[in-house]
Structure formats: C-alpha cells, structure tokens
Amino acid sequence: MDIKLKNITVRELTNYYHVNKYEDVGYDGKLVIRPDYQREFIYKDKQRDAVISTITKGLPLKAMYWAVLGDGNYEVIDGQQRTISVCQYVKNEFAYMSRYFKDLDCEEQYKILNYKLMVYLCNGTDSEKLEWFKTINIADEQLNDQEVRNVVYAGFWLSHAKSYFCKSGGPAYQIGGKYLNGSAIRQDYLEIALKWISKGNIEEYMSNHQHDKSALALQKYFQSVITWVSSTFTNYRKYMKGIEWGFLYNKYYDETYDTNKIEEEIAKLMLDDHVVRKSGIYPYILTRDERFLFIRDEQTNPCIERISHVQRDERTESRDFPFGS
Predict the structure, then answer these.
(1) Helices (DSSP H) in 103-144: which residue ranges?
(2) Residue 234 CA: distances (Å) to CA of 176, 261, 264
(3) Rounded to the nearest 5 degrees, what angle is found at the Cα of 82, between the Cα atoms of 18 and 186?
(4) What is the mean pLDDT of residues 90-101?
(5) Strand partners, 115
(6) Please, what is the Cα angle at 72 between 30 and 154, to 5 degrees?
(7) pLDDT tens sequence across 233-252
(8) Are 266 and 281 in contact (CB under 8 A)?
(9) CB 263 within 8 A of CB 234
(10) Could you tell me the CA-to-CA distances from 310 to 268, 288, 291, 306, 320 in Å, in that order?
(11) What's the rounded Cα separation, in Å, for the pair 144 and 200?
(12) Which of the two residues, 178 and 305, has the higher pLDDT score?
C-alpha cells in the first residue's frame, strides 16, 4: 500500500462542490465524495457542528483518506461525513452558532477557507486495501466489515446489489426483513445474503463477481431462500428472525417436508418448558440436532446443555454447525 500525505485547503476541497443524482463531487470535480459504495450522510447536528468548531478554532481535524483512481481522480474512502459537513457549511446549507458562512466577516471566511486538511492519498491492491481499511474509522462511526468490503469491490455489480439490499424499505426488506437482523442501510442485509450464497466466503464471492453486469444471481438466490423458509415453516413467529436461513437452505432446500406435521411439532416444542432456545427449534426440525434447543436439565443445573443420546450422522458434527442459535 502506497500512502502519501497531501495538505488540501477547505477552499480547494469545496471548489466545484455539487450534488448530482448519483454522488457528491468536490475538489474541482476531481473528487467523488460519496461513491455508490458509501453509506448515506448520517451525522447528527452535534457531530456536524463539532467539525466546524474544530476548523474555526484552528484545531487539527482527523486525517482523511482518498483512493487514487486510474484516471487521476479520487474517491473518499475515509472522511466522507466530515467532508460533506465542511462543504455544506461553506455552501450555506446549514448555520453554525446561528450564522451561515455567508454571514461571517471576510477575516472569518478567509480563516476557514485556508484551513489545511490532512489528506492521505492511497494506492494499493485489493487485498492490501481490504486489510488496511479494517483499521479505519469514519469520525466516530466505525466502518463495519461489509462497508470495508464495499470500498474494495466497488463497481456496477455492487451498485446493483445495493439497490436491492441496502435501501430502507427496499425490495430485500419487503420480502425478507422479518427474517433478518440488522439494518439495510448499514449493509447488514447485503452481508447476510453474501454470506449465505458464498457459504461464508464473502470476499472471494465479491472478487469473482465485482465486474459482473448485474447482481441478479444474488437477488434470485435471496428470493429463493425466503420463499423456501416461508413455504416450509408456514406460521411465522418472532423467533424466526435472525436465524441463518441461507445455510439451512443450502443443505435442505431439495428435501420434501410435511408442513402440517412440521407446524404441529413446532407448536409442541414452543410450549415445552425444557426447550430454552426457542429460535433453535427451526434448525432442529431440519437437523435433529438437540444442541440447537439448549434443553433444560432440571436434575443438574437448569441451564446447561444436554447432548442427545440419539445417534447423529456426520452432518451434525461441530465442523458442520454453522447455523447459529
């Protein structure tokens, strides 16, 4: 990874700042401030004002990082929230201490515009970026793992995938939100779908598909998982949220089940006080592995796990126990 420090003034950063349909642009049009892989602007007023306060007081602002693109332009990879805060203030989109930038006297404006930002320009391979990005924070909002991957494997395929999985109230939420933990806009739904389809090898899958023309395969896979879940377990319960459904689908989707009998057994297990982990009922129905149930043993400690004496085949060994709890 080649990283070089460059001082950029606020004047240079905000020159030609504008927002179009797809992205925020600044630095004479050479900097994409919010690439399609980045999160939406999430700063609260207090955080945004802290950025402006730091600059007006002449204190050092946390360093930012830009990726150097092949065409000589740049993309923000760390510092998006701070950058947008600065640009919006200079362009009079909000007031700080009840004053817009245009209301400041010339000396105050000059001081802000000539404030020097520390920017690191970064070149490197995908693997180098991936390892390095894991150490980066965006202001006080740490990048999660999927946001880091999105930086490295950006492209049309990712944009298409995000349009499906990463919108509040979007398609993935509409059909599968009640089965998934996390937040769409923080990339959780995308990460879950990628984990399922790749059998845990997310980075390998993203690398292999980065330059695909669409993410339809991922979307169709996700739809198949949700359809299989809802048709196999026909009565939705809150305990179905957060189960690793994709791993179960990968292994059992081609099995034939009597859904009425499944529902009868689930109902009985839900009423069984010895079953501690109600969410574990669903993988248990498919695997017959009682470790999912965390059965209460009242003769010893009431909350220890009892290992079933039923003979299990190789699929229930610990190495094949990926479904969570």
Answers:
(1) 106-113, 126-133
(2) 14, 11, 11
(3) 90
(4) 94
(5) none
(6) 80
(7) 999 999 999 999 999 999 99
(8) yes
(9) yes
(10) 20, 9, 12, 12, 17
(11) 16
(12) 178
DSSP 102: G
Determine the longest span between alpha carbons in the chain, in angstroms. Answer: 82
Helices (H), strands (E): how many in the chain? 14, 9
- For residue 7, list its beta bridge partners: 118
pLDDT digits (tens, 9 = 90+) for 48-58: 999 999 999 99
Q: How far is CA 29 from CA 20, 24, 316, in A?
A: 12, 9, 56
Identify the pLDDT of residue 140.
42
- Using the predicted structure, report yes or no on whether residue 289 has a pLDDT greater than 90: yes
Phi, psi torsion values for 121, nearest 5 degrees: -95, 125
Q: What is the identity of the amino acid at 20?
A: N
Cα→Cα distances 96→49, 53, 256, Å: 6, 8, 63
Residues 6+ apart with CB under 8 A from 155: 210, 211
Q: Confidence band (pLDDT; 50, 70, 90) for 301?
A: very low
